[in-house]
Every structure is written in structure tokens, then in C-alpha cells.
Request: fold
Amino acid sequence: MSLLPSLFRKIQQLKEPTTQSSPPAESAEVQSAFAEATQAYQAKDLERAVALYDRVIALQPDHAEALYKRGNALKDLGQLPAALACYDAAVKHRPDFGYAWCNRGFVQQSLGLREAALASFDEAVRLNPDDLVAHVNRGSLLQSLSRWQEALVSHDRVLALNPQLFQTWLFRGNVLRELRQPEGALASFRKALELKPDYAEAHYNCGVSLELLGQPQAALDSYDRAVASFPQFHQAHYNRAGLLKAEGRLQEALEAYDRALAVKADYAETYSNRGAVLHELERWDEALASFDRALALRSGYAEAHMQRAYTLGALGRYEASLREYDRAVALKPEFPEARYNRSQMQLLLGDYEQGWVDYEWRWRIPAKLKVWPRVLPQPLWLGQEPIAGKRLLIHCEQGLGDTLQFCRFAQSVADLGGIVFLEVQPPLVSLLRSLAGVAQVIAQGSPLPEFDYHCPMMSLPLAVRATVTTIPGAEGYLRSDPAKVAHWRARLGERTRPRIGLVWSGNPAQVNDRKRSFALAGWIEHLPREFDYVCVQKDIQPRDRESLAANAWISHYGDELHDLSDTAALCECLDLIISVCTSGAHLSGALGRPTWILLAFDAEWRWLHARSDTPWYRSARLYRQPAIGDWQGVFARVRADLIANF
Reply:
């Protein structure tokens, strides 16, 4: 929020002396006319004052004080070019006229002549080092020019002259924030509040600084004080809503956005962000209406097109979603989030050629995805350079399931003659030693061997130009340890009826876990009791522990699953694994085991669209929600197929 215009209004109210140095000798007529003009100016009779100053100047053309005062009257009348001409003449006739230099700078800045204005302010403070108005103007102009360090020096000079100027404490804080000194900024804003406790702008800026310092509740308190001091403070309502959204307090965020709109109903950003909250609340139609309103207010609003695309995708309107992403990218080609989101829609619809290209934009939004690019001295390999005879480090980048799904492309690199080193999460090291085409498997964080190139694991499909029809290893590419398989067969005992493995939840920290996972209690009643069930997941969420303990007919060996090679061996002893979209599904599919994968309505791009099979795993069958959030329909189909097939 910029407060510079209000500052200029304030400083024009500061008292100015009528003269700076003794005027030249004047006739009695000039003195009388000048006194009459000044009286008219003080009475706010500005047009008469201009005419009377004209009379003075006609009698004495070098009368700098009359020229200066005439400029002031014209400035107050809004006739800025004419005022500037008066100030120019005043400093021409009296070069040491500091106040004329100061007002000249103010008018120049108002006319957009910022560099010329700075020169005028510089001259004003050179002539009069204690001219508070000139220092205030100069500091604010330097701030508007983003010359932060110089602005800070200027603000400090103002405060040395008058430490009671609460506005300058505010501007000083803004400069320190731009200099990435949020603690100092916060201290300045708090100093402004000591001088003016109901200073809404200072409360607001405290909130911004506290957000930067990672203190969300304190920031919210500051925004609350800002809107309490000034209920029409739109930006404070807006920022407060955004912080509530980030904290997951969605209903409160929606109410805050509505209050912001009550203050400023034509702010497109508020409608767009409000739509994003409605999306999270699964109020889809309202979300689309909010995005539409944002676009009506601002045509060409790329962010609103992207958000609208995201909601259309959640509703299963994939082609429409892709068109919206295309619009966002066309409007803003360097829009990483839109490019990345579009890649997922392209991949979902089977356009792997373009989808893998756009998927590389993930590295431009690392904080959002919690995935940071690996910084290595060796060059990145994305398939352009010949790899035969070269050593390639393939390194994992996302979750266990992603590594299990994409490690298969190591064989594709080996087929090109590359020597592959595979760096993966420690729980996968033992299992992935069975992967064909790999010279060495390295635990993430361990010392690396010498290599020539590196490639993030999920960039491999781009590097080898994979398409839907050329995905390698669909029949299975991992093997279990025979000794561990034998251990589990003995551990499970004699098979008397079909054994079904169950995975109903993934990592709760995963961004879409709320959609892909469900509570065990809701599934238990749909499981036919004529089968033996084995919990294949190691970790059990708190909500499921009681359900699992109360249903002893579901076996659980979590403490015995030390890494994924143990889980893989257990899977080999089961007739079927039923899993949500998590590492359990990828592990079972990579082993070539019969796998049923339970998917949310808007399932991830990797499962393509409207298919019950997948080119990634030939042994897998997909069960999709028939409607948003409808796990009961999935459970009913799985139950019927279990009874029919086993």
C-alpha cells in the first residue's frame, strides 16, 4: 500500500517562512501590491492572488518572492506547468532561494519529472540543511525511485530534525522491509504506533512484517487492529484473508474476503483469491462464479484463468480446464504455476510430448511444491547429449511412490549406453538393487561416485522421449528378495483362503492426501469376511489405530516392515493388493502383482483419464470415484469384484 501521495498532502501543510533572504530594494508601489497579493493568497482567493502577483512582477520582473508566491497559488489551483515556470524564474533570479527549489521539486515530481525533482530537492537541502519539508520530500522521492539505502539516510535525517513525525517512521519501516530487514522495519512501525496508537497503516505494516518473520498469529492481530482503526482499510482486509487462507482457516478467510469486497467491490484479485478459498471448501460453482467476476473486472487476468482451470479440473471438465491453462500461459508466458499445472492436465489427457516439457516448470515454484532443484557441478542431462559411455547420476526428487514409478527409466538410459548411478531414499536402496540397468544404487545423503551428467528422476520421461505407448516395464521391473519372501510365507502360515493386502492412506503431509486417503472405519463394513486381509502399510494414522485394533481379522505387521524390500516380499505372498494412490500401489504394480488402485474423482495425472487400466502397470486395475468424494461407490464395486473374482 503506497502512502506517498498522502505524505505530500501532509507536508504542504507544514509552515513555510514567507522569505528566505532579504529581497532587493522595492518601491512603495511594489511593496503595497505584494502585501495585497499576499493577503489574497492567505485568504485562499487564489485567482485574485495570481493577478495581484502579476502586477508585482510587471512592476519588478526579478521579484523572486512574488514569482515564488505566484507559483504557490498556481500550484494550489492545479496549474502545475505554470507553477513550475514561476519556480524556474524565482530560482533564476535568486539561486539561493531554497524554498523555491523545494516547491519546484514537488511540482516536478507531480508532473512525473522525478530525476529533475530529485535535483531540486538536493539543491534545497544543500542551501538549507535543516529544511524539514525538503528532506521529507527528498526521502519520499528516493523511496519511489527504489533507491532504498539513500531513502533510509534521508528519512533518518528527517527524524533527527523531528522524531515526532510518525509518517516518516512508517516510511522508514517500509524502506527497511525493502532492504530485507523485517526486524528493523517492525521496530520502526512500532515507533510510529507509539506516537499514534490508532495509526491503521502502521498496524497493517506491522502485520506484513510479522508475516515475513513467520509469526502468523501476531500478524493477524495487527491486521485486526488495522481494520478496527480504519474499517474501510481494504488492503488490511485482503491481507488478513490471505493469511487466514494460508493457515487453513477457510471459512474465516472467505468472510474476510467478503469484507474486503464490501469495501472495494471492483478489486479483481479479491474475487480470484476468494474463488480459490471456495475451491478448497469444495463449493465449485461459487468458485467459478468468483473467478468469472474477477475476469469481468480485469480482462487478461492470467492468475484468474489459472485458478478457474484448476477448479474445472477438479470437476472433471478436463478439456475446458486445459483451454483455461492455455489462456493463462498465452497471457503470461513466464507463469511457472500455470505451466506446471497445465503439464498435469496435458499428461492426464495423454499428451506426453508437451506434458513432459511443461512439467519441467516445477523447478520454478520450489516453495509451493516443496521440491528444490539439485545444485551439482556436473551438467543436467535431458536427452540432448549422447549418453553412451557416460556416467549419469539419476537422483530422486519427490515421494517414495514417485521414485518407484519412475526408476524404471534407468533401463532406458542403459539401453542408450549410459552408465547409471541411482540415488534414492534410504528405505528403497535394498529393493532397487534388483532394478535392471543400474550400476550402483546410492542412499540419499551418501557420498556420490564420479559422474558426467545428472538428471532428476521425474525428468527421465522427457529425456528419453517417453509416450503413453512407449512406457517401459509395464509388466513389472522389480524383484523381491527370495529369502525375505520365504520368511513371510512362514510368517503368514498355511494359506487357507485368498489373502488381500490393504493400503488405505498415504503420507498425511502430501498436498492431496485429504482426497486420495480415507479412514479405515468407512471401508471395513464393505470388506467380505471370506478373505484374509493384511495391512500392507507400515504407518497407521491416529484416526485408524482404534479401528485396526478393534478388527483383529486384519493382520498388521508394521514393526516388521523395516524398509520397502520387506514390504515387497510381503506383497509377493498376497493374491491381491488394494491400495489408494500411494507408494503401496506403485510397489505392487512394479512387482507385477495383481493390484487394484482406488482413485479420487480428480485422480492424479499419472492415471490418465477415464481408464480402468494403466500403461504404467499391466497388472493394475483402476477404481475411480463416480462422483466427487464418493468412496462408498468405489467400496461397493471393489466388494462386488472381490466376490466375483476370488
Observations:
- Residues 329 and 338 are 6 Å apart (CA to CA).
- Confidence is low (pLDDT under 50) at residues 1-22.
